[in-house]
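re: ur question from yesterday

yeah so i grabbed the chain u mentioned. its 248 aa long if i counted rite. heres the sequnce exactly as i have it in my notes:
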Amino acid sequence: MGEQRVLITGASSGIGEQLALDYAANGWQVIACGRNLEALGALHQQHDNIKPLSFDINSLGSIKQALADVAAKDLDLVILNAGVCEYIDTPMQFDSALFERVIQTNVIAVGYCLEAMLPCIRTGGRIALMSSSASFLSLPRAEAYGASKAAVSYLAHTLAIDIAPKQLGVSVIHPGFVKTPLTDKNDFPMPMRISVEQASAAIRTDLAKGKTEINFPGRFTWILKTMALLPTSLWRWMARKGLAGSNQ
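ran it thru and got these structure tokens back, copy pasting raw so excuse formatting
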């Protein structure tokens, strides 16, 4: 087998950055995508088998042109990691512009990436979509973020069915709280938060096994999935109590 190639979006920070570093350290050829060219350049300085690639993830034309410029083809793995997180703090003054921003980047842009990148994956390759454990259970203030990640999970599961005959694998990733610049902005308790190194290890291990659903930390995601089985009125009450407690 020749050199393996992976393309990672959102690679300039957080989980995406750590994945790029770890895959490169293990001998993969890495196409690290993001908006921050300085951060991507720093990755290349650490590993010359990391190729920086900058494009506007909300522009299909920009994505396609960037892929053409680096002759991205015969990829073994694509990880669609880029995303944003914003919360609805005053639901009675619902911020539709915020809602649109989150849906655009977390859902519509994933569609752009699929159109541009699926043809670049070799037969037998795999594409992974970054969702969130927030998709398991409706959580306070997450009207935009949670909805976007639930959409990504549904998209991944459906795509897996439809492209299986093409011998392409699809995985969906549901992380819990991971210490990143994104979660550092959160103003509420984040139980069982793990490091980006731990997150990267969990993702890479399960992708290597061909797992279709990657959930971590295991105990945290199990709790959320179990809560989702409770009567709706009960877990809504629990969510409200949790929100009230976090505001004290």
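noticed a couple things. The chain has one domain: 5-246. also Residues 96-117 form the longest helix (22 residues).
anyway ttyl
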